[in-house]
Write a structure and sequence with these properties.
Length: 251
Amino acid sequence: MSLENKVVLITGGGSGIGADAARGFRAAGAKIVLNGRREDALSEVAGKLDPSGEHVACVAGDIGRKETASRIVETAVERFGGVDVLLNNAGIFSTKPFLEHTGEYLDGYFNLLRGYFFVSQAAIPEMRTRKGAAIINIGSMWSLQAIAATPCAAAATAKGGVHSLTRSLAIEFASDRIRVNAIAPAVVETPLFDPLLTPEELESFNAFHPLGFNGQPGDATEAILFLADDARSRWITGVVLPLDGGVTAGR
């Protein structure tokens, strides 16, 4: 793998896919800047990854605020000398009938989309100084295929925007050798679903996936590492990869 000594920024790095991806990147020898809203969660993940604090830094804050995005990149440059990989992973998810959506509810999802936009804007000038770089965005299977049992128009709309952002940036920055891709997960068993589903309800979603089981954070990590690694995916950009156990393949 070509990830050793690469500088990786991860939003939503305090739990779930973000924390597991940080584990995978660190195991590959990367240096990491973790972002999330909760400083205690980030510190716990960072301590497990690198007790010395030499290879992992934390920047707490809301990525929907442009100053937070700038601080993440500034920290990467000051601590580790630049930016090679950005994982836009921060996320929220809940199901809600469309007619019950409020402005405040919608704003939560659009704030995340704004965060993906702002962190990418802050990172790309630094990425342009490298010989190659990668952005991986976390999209959603629900933006590719609506499911009657799980109405989530706000989440699907915002993540659909992430998919469009992925393709737009892939074309705009292809000449800079900045590859931009996304993964679109279905049900991956992370704390994101804890407020929504009991363990029994979560288990019932195994049958929702044609392969017969829910995803695990490690499944997402493997896809993320592949897309981040120029030695393995240097000719792939502008792709939204369904990571869904076969859901979007058909019925």
